[in-house]
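Hey, I'm writing a tutorial for new members on how sequence and structure tokens pair up, and I'd like a real worked example in the thread rather than a made-up one. If someone can provide the structure for the chain below, I'll link this post from the tutorial.
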Amino acid sequence: VQLVESGGGLVQPGGSLRLSCAASGFLISTNDMRWYRQAPGKEREFVARITTVGLDSYDDSVLGRFTITRHNEKNTIYLQMNSLKPDDTAVYYCNTIRWGSDVWGQGTQVTVSS
């Protein structure tokens, strides 16, 4: 079971990025999938979730700016991030729960700065 994130980078405030999380060893269609982030010196925090039936939910800090989607045929989930702010700077992690245990990717760095 593996999750591999990609798509991070440096972007100016107000810009956009799309993160990807490719899963292997299981089907994302059978699992709720989540994005978390961790800023320097802070705890990891929830960002967004998408259920097996496609229902999405978000932390208030990203609501209206971020969109989580899933592509079951590619076994990949995405996080479209618009109107990015410096406070969005963090390492972003993909997450799911398998057999009662958290599965995490290695993370991808997002830096929002002018």
